[in-house]
Amino acid sequence: MSSVIWYLYEFARKSWAESFAGAKTDREIMDAPDRFRDFPEVIKENCIACGACTAACPAPQAIKLVRTEDNAHEEGITYPVINNRGCIRCGFCAEVCPTDPKTLLCGENHLIREEFTILPVDLMYVIDDYLCIRCKKCMDTCPVEGAIFEEDNKVVIDKAKCITCGECLKTCPVKGAVKGIFIDNIQEQKQIINLVVNTLEARIQKEEENIKELSAPEVYKIDMPIQELVERARSIISNDELILDIIQKITDRLKMRIITWDQEKCNNCRLCVADCPSGAITYTKENGVLRNPKKCLRCSICYQTCPFGVAGYYMARFLLSEPNLEDAVIHITLKASQLPIGAG
Description:
Elements: H1 2-12, H2 14-21, H3 27-30, E1 41-42, H4 52-56, E2 63-67, E3 78-82, H5 92-96, E4 104-105, E5 123-127, H6 137-141, E6 148-151, E7 154-157, H7 167-171, E8 178-182, H8 186-205, H9 208-212, E9 219-225, H10 227-234, H11 240-253, E10 255-261, H12 271-275, E11 281-284, E12 288-291, H13 301-305, E13 311-320, E14 329-336
């Protein structure tokens, strides 16, 4: 009983009440460091609906694309939505996002700082600390003393000393750890990215009837020569090095989701209409269930919902046969999805 009275006496003291009410966390603990990767912040207006973020994300259900409704004045916009319960804050979505300024922000590590863009060069080299294995081969091969150095257990390129010779990129044993980034002609780069992705998708769509027959263990292959694509890219900008760099990065990273639609199998059950997040699938008495490919986000919900196999879902990957613009071919491989049909 005496101990209870002692605790009551302590809690009743004015000094204790003031210290409890004014308690604060130490700022060194509370403030996040500059390189802290937070949950991605989405800038909706910058999104071009390319889907690179959803393809790069390693965490299931952590990121998806949604589309706002059209109205009388303007079309709806497509943008990514982050599920914080699924996101592991790896930053891949922000890294692969091609827009400038970025649609996704999650830390200083994934930004090209403004002070770097004043350099009178077209190409800038950066080291991805996430992929770097600290072998220091880039430091050994760099012809400029001090241009590449180690700081806080990170290998860093000093932009003021770098002469953009590219020796670090040639020497690095890890693909993607050293990146060459073109810092000029941003709008032209966006146009070429859209051109390449749209051309690849159009080429795949020409094979839709054959792709529909593809079963899960099989692989469907398409070879697409790039000469016509290169000529169209040159009409946007006459820089073959930049064009090749963009095509290489797209074929290295891009995984394209392909949705096919077999109208003859549709029984107008309308399960997909209610589940489609973008309004791409509609129903009318006159026309039945119809899909608008321009609004489709390739989320695969219709494929998983439909019990009749109307929607087909496939994954396409790409490989550039050789690093030149004259004789190269883009190898396209498609595989049927492993997701179960009618899972919804």
